[in-house]
Amino acid sequence: MGYLDGFKVTFGKLFGERVTTEYPHEKRPKPPRFHGRHVLNRYPDGMEKCIGCELCAGVCPARCIYVRGADNSPDDPVSPGERYGYVYEINYLRCIHCDLCVEACPTEAITETKVFEFSFPTRRDAIYTKDELLTDDDGRPRRQPWELWHEGDDEHTSGWMRATSPSGQPDYEGRVGWSGELGYGVRAPEQGQHADLDGGEDDSVIAGDDTADLDEHSGAPAAGDHH
Ligand code: SF4
Ligand code: SF4
User: What is the CA(188)–ligand 1 centre distance, in A?
Assistant: First the structure.
């Protein structure tokens, strides 16, 4: 008669709370630091953040980034400063989403979205070009037809920046040391160890007073304001 106990468990589950997620129609929220497909960010005035320095390509352990820099034209600059990235490619057949490129970038140009659902019919299609990686005029990632985007996947596109203080020096907790982004403004810092996580605010919101020390032109922190 022991098998009747087994049926009891089965029938009990029939009327219990459902825990199945109907993927892909329903997707669970991803962690703020999740590493997905990259984006190339722009400053609030539309200028590109990438300066073509190739640090991301140099640090990439999979050797999947190809960058070429060029001098900005004084009459029609693409980025603030002397140089910009005129070729930028990432080969997603090789990328392991380690985010070392993101850590190495001096201008916060390259960051990652939350999208990981994308596939390609050919090897050539797996190489994302600058046009595909660069954010749109509204600052949002350009959604490619072969990518499966869901609500919120384009919100935390630079969550890594808010990982600088919560487990480190308490004096820097909550202090912004990064530039603004087209479409998002200045990202608020990640909540610290003492934050009220149950009733706390969403850390994706644009910071209010933290914009005070920003460079007027680019939205970047003013000189000497980096921590
Ligand atoms: S996430 Fe890692 S593997 Fe992918 S491009 Fe960046 S450095 Fe290379
Ligand atoms: S994304 Fe960043 S690290 Fe890579 S070339 Fe551009 S500025 Fe340099």
Answer: 25
